[in-house]
Design a protein that fits this description.
mainly alpha; two-stranded antiparallel sheet; 2 strands
Length: about 180
């Protein structure tokens, strides 16, 4: 079984952002990527967002998977990306609208965007959870606060959170690299 990975290298993240800005003139894919790696929502929740959901300083949603209410402060990167993207959009428009009619893009379309990134940048296993995992990985690396991340992700146990974001694997890799008989 192949597990999807976070994008661990911040330089690669910067390059992906540049690539998406050039490749996607609408800004949709860029905004999906930037918002996804900055707020830690599941792809199912990102795809349900309407423009009105991101007009303020917070995203207020009811999570599709858990049914729980979630309030997320938009950081500077997310705010900048979203503000440019929604400039001429109506409140009731889908944030990530399909080019094929009045609907949000599908999970499959989001997956294809990430596969394109994976192939272009020769990354490991990327999937729709990679955005959320990338957020978690870098949040943990910056703050070392697994309890806060556990709350953000609604995980029952800190071990689940560390495994989910790939920190557990990083530790094992480092130990194995230094081990030798």
């Amino acid at each position: 079984m192949n597990f999807v990975e976070p994008i661990r290298d911040k330089n690669v993240i910067r390059e992906i952002k540049k690539y998406l800005l050039i490749k996607d003139s609408s800004g949709r894919n860029y905004t999906l990527f930037v918002l996804g790696i900055n707020v830690g929502l599941r792809i199912s929740d990102l795809l349900l967002l309407k423009v009105k959901d991101v007009r303020g300083d917070y995203i207020n949603i009811r999570e599709k998977k858990t049914g729980k209410h979630k309030k997320i402060k938009l950081n500077k990167e997310a705010r900048k990306s979203v503000s440019r993207f929604i400039y001429n959009k109506s409140d009731d428009d889908w944030l990530f609208a399909s080019r094929k009619g009045y609907a949000a893009i599908s999970r499959i379309t989001a997956y294809r965007i990430l596969v394109d990134i994976q192939e272009t940048f020769k990354l490991g296993n990327l999937g729709t959870h990679s955005l959320r995992k990338t957020f978690g990985y870098h949040f943990y690396k910056e703050y070392k606060d697994v309890a806060a991340l556990q709350i953000i992700f609604n995980h029952a146990d800190p071990k689940i959170t560390l495994r989910y974001i790939g920190i557990e694997q990083d530790g094992l890799d480092t130990m194995m690299e230094g081990f030798g008989l």
